[in-house]
Amino acid sequence: GGGGPGRSDAAVASTGGSMLAAVVGGRRAAQRLLPHGPGLGALARSSTRSTRDEAPSAGQLWNFFFHSAVTFVGFGVMDNTVMLLAGDAIDNTLGVRFGLATLTAAAFGQIFSDVSGICFGSTVEALATRIGLPIPELTAAQRSMRVTKLVGTMGSICGVVAGCLIGMSTLLFIDVNEANRAKREKELSTIFEVVFSHAREVFDAEASSLFVLDREKGQLWSRVTTDVPFVITCDIGKGVVGQVAENGEVVNIKDAMTDPRVNHTVDRSTGFCTRSILCAPVRNAAGEVVAVVEVINKRSGEGFDASDEKSVRLLATHVG
Question: For the whole prediction, is pTM greater than 0.70?
Fold first, then answer.
């Protein structure tokens, strides 16, 4: 009776041990058959991450470059156009009134340009999307890759350069010298008011004028004159003023009625009678003739004398 159960327990233990050994042995065999390294879970995670972090293709990079470039073309066009138009308007108004340098006006124009970029930046991006640009299909990991960032930066640079060049076409419709002429005219008007208001008393003359040289047009013009309210122009080398501008020498004509160098066109149109003329060139710091001082009709004596010639030279030096 007592021996039966003992044998049964031994048999169960023997059988359980055999099964445990078989399981352990099978696991070891499986490990020998599989390659050494991380487990299946780790391999699966590595495979998924490799697929996700795969470098973008050439087509994806090209789409990203093109999208970045076109967007920044709009920014470049807006930036340069606003800066040039605003800067030119400021230069022709505040610049002339307060004597601001052209670079100062350009700096104010850049402020308007930057403000426009902030206000209308989203509009430019919306327009770029509306025209049907292909949107680059890149994952966050791909966008953070070095090659993607480099391509995007190069596209943005090319786009903004192209846009700025297009924006510079505004210069074709702007008179870039208008502000300089206005500033020069204002400066000369101030000089005229200060100096020539007493010129007739100093020289005992009936009239005086200051002719400004415009080398681009090959003319001299006088908008500031004591007796003639309109603009007078003459060509370089023609007439007394034109010859003084060309030769750079003082000319003293005691009898203008008989001298062939005198042009009486203005006299005929205004009724003024020119009897004697004294002209002197005005030079800049480089020694170039930039204007001509003209004093007309000596009231006393027979025309202007050597003392007047010396005085007009000093006056021309002061104006220059």
Answer: no
